Request: fold
Amino acid sequence: MIYFDNSATTKVSKEVLDSFVKTNDQFFANPNSLHKLGLESKKIMQAAIDQVAALLNVKPQEIIFTSSSSESNNLAIKGVLDFYPKRHRLILTTILEHPSISTTLENENVEIVYLKLDQDYHVDLEDLKEKLKLDPILVTINHVNSELGVIQDISQIGKIIKENSKAIFHVDGTQSLTKIPVNLTNVDLFSATAHKFNGLKGIAILVKKEKIGLTPLISGGASQTIYRAGTPAVPLIVSFAKALRLALATEQEAYNKIKIINNYLRQELSTIMNITINSPTDASPYILNFSVKGIKPETFIHKLEAKDVILSTKTACSAKEDYSKTIYQLTNNKELSKTSVRLSLGKDNTLEEAKEFIKILRKEIL
Amino acid sequence: MEKVILIKYGELTTKKGNRNFFVKTLTNNIENKLKEFPIKIEKDNSRMYIHYEDSFETTIINSIHQIFGIHSYHIAYVTKSDLESIKQDLISTLQEQTFSTFKIEVKRSDKSFPKTSLELAPIFGSVVLKNKENIKVDVNNPDTIIHIEIRKEHTYIYYNAYKGLGGYPMGIQGKGLLMLSGGIDSPVAGFLAMKRGIKIEAVYFEAIPHTSLEAREKVITLVKKLEKYTTDIKLHIVPFTKIQEEIYKNVSPNYVITIMRRMMYRIMASLCQKQKAKVLINGESIGQVASQTLSSMYVINNVTTIPVIRPVACLDKLEIIDLAKKIDTYETSILPYEDCCTVFVPKHPIINPTLEETLKEEAKIPNYQEILDETIANTFVLKTKENAKDSYQDLL
Reply:
C-alpha cells in the first residue's frame, strides 16, 4: 500500500507506541496524587514537559497539553478573547486557515479581518502593517496551510506584529512542526499535535508564552497546568515528548528526501494534460495539491484506492463540503476547487512509491 | 587566534605556605568541573593558563563563573613572539574591545627579545591609537589596561579582567554538614559555606507521613542546584518522624520547636562525628522566627560543642532572597511543600526559652536518647547523581 495522506494523520512509530505502553504499565498513577506512585508519575511527566520545552526553546511552564490541535486552536482564540474582555474584538487572519480556526472565529462575536495575500499566497507584509493599525486583539496565522502547503514567514510576521502593535500572535503549527524549522521567538501562542509526526492521536500542545493571559476552556482541579483541567494523560504526554524528539532529530534528513520526491511528482504531474498543480512552488514539500479535470475527485480517489494508493480530496477536516473553499477563494475557479486532491507525504514515503503512483496514474486512471 | 583563560594567583591567598595546596585544590576543581571538555591546564609560579577550544567558549566561561577560588580572570590571546605578529594580532583583538582611554603594560620575560619593555610600550601605544577611533592614552585612570607579555615560546595579549565567583577553592577547609530544610535560607547558607572553601554534605530531616515525598524531591532539586558550584553533594536523609511525634505528644506546645531543634542539633552533632565533619552549618537568621532569637539559639546550641556556622545569621530576609535568586534556588525554595519545621508549628512558640524550663520539658521524653540512636542508625544517604539518571530516560 502506498500511503499519501500523511497530512491527515501519520502512522504511529513503534518506538512511540512502545513508550506509551510502557508508561501506562509503569506510571499509571495520577501525577497529582500525593503518594509515591503519584510522585513517580509526576516526575516522568515533568521530565517529558522539560524535554518538549527544551526542544521548542521555550520554558516548561509555557507548555499546555491538550487533546488535539483543534482544541489548542479553540483554547488560544476563546481563551484570549475571554481573558482580555476590554480589548478590541477584532482578529486578523487569512483565508488559509484550518476549520478549527475559521469556524471558531465565525462563531465568536468578533470582527474578522482577512489579510491580503500576494501571488504566492504569502501574507502581504505591508497590508499587515496597515491592518495592525486597527488594534486587533489577536493575529492568527497558519504556519503551513494544510490544503496547499503554503508556508508563511512567521518570524517576519511576528516581528512586524511586535514592532507595530500590542496584538497577540497565534500560530497554528500543526503542519509545520518537525517538517520545517519553527522559531517561536516572536510567537505568543503555538498549536501542534503529535499524530502529524508519527505520534499518537489524542495529544497536542498549545505553547503559551508566560506573559500571555488565557482563560481555560475546561475548568476543574489540579492538572498538568491551570489552563486545562482533567487528569493529566501522562503516557500520552510522554509519547508526545518521544515523538517530537525523534521527529526533530531526523527533520533535515526527511526534508531532503521529501523534497526530492515532491520535485519528481511535480515534474511528472505537470506533464499530464488534465492536471493542474495548485500548490505554489515554494510550498511545503510535504503537501502537493492538484486538480484533475474531467473526473470527480471522489471517483479519482476510489480508483487509486482500488490500486492500493491512498490520498485525499481536500483536507480530511472539511471533507463534507463539495468544493474546496480555499482553492476557490485563491483561484476564483470553481472547477479547480471542485476537482482538487491532496497528496501528502510522510517521512517513510520513498521515491519508488512515487514512481509506482505515477505509473498507476498513467496506466490505469487517466 | 588561540585564546586562553588566564588566572593570576595573586589574590588567591596571602599566606605563601598555603599556596601550593590552594592551587592544587583549585586545579582539581577546575579539571573536575570541565572534565567533559577538551581543556589543558598549564601552571607556573604565579598563574594558571586554561587552554580550550573556541567552540566551547561560552560553556567554559559559564563554568568558570561557578568555581570558587577564582577572583578574576583574563581572556588572553596567544600570538607569536615577534614584533610584527604582536602588532598584527593587537590590531585584530582591538576591534572587540570598547574603551575610550587605555594604557599599555608590556612585560618582557624573554630578555633576548630585541627591544625592552620601555621601548615597546610607545610602539604598541601608537599601533592602538592608529587603529581605533576616539581613544586616548591615560596612564593614571585608564578604562582598560592592555597587557602584552612577551615570553620565549609565545606572547599573550589581554585586556581587563572579568570578575569571578571569589572565595576559596572548595575543599580547602575540610567538611561541614548543612541542615537543608527546603526553605530559602539554608541553600544560601550552604552556598556561602562553600564559598569559604568548606566541602558540604546536606542533611534533610524528613517526617513522613507528615511531610511528603514531594518535599524530599524539592530538597533533591536544591542539592542539584548547589552542586553546580562543586562536584557532588551527599544528601543524608534523617527519618525524624518518631522523635517528632514523641515531642508533639509530650512537650508543652510552646516548647515543641525548642526541643525539636535541640534534637536536630544532637543528631547533627552525632552525624558530624560519623562523617568526620568539623562544623555544622544552617540557615538560621537572627530573630527571623521564634527558634532563631538569641535566647533560643543559646538554649538550642547548648546540646553540642561542635561549632555551628550560620552564614546568613546577620543578613536581612531580602538580602537572603537576593542571594537565593542569584544562585537560582529561590524558585525551588518557595514551592509550597511542608517540611518538618513547618508541619508541627504551635500557635505560640516561645520566643525567650530558658534552659531550666527546656530541661524540664525535655525530661518528659525520658527515652529520647534511645529514639535518637535509632534515628541516627536509620539515617541513609541518597545519591542525587544516580537519582538524576532515572530509569525512564529510554521512555522519552
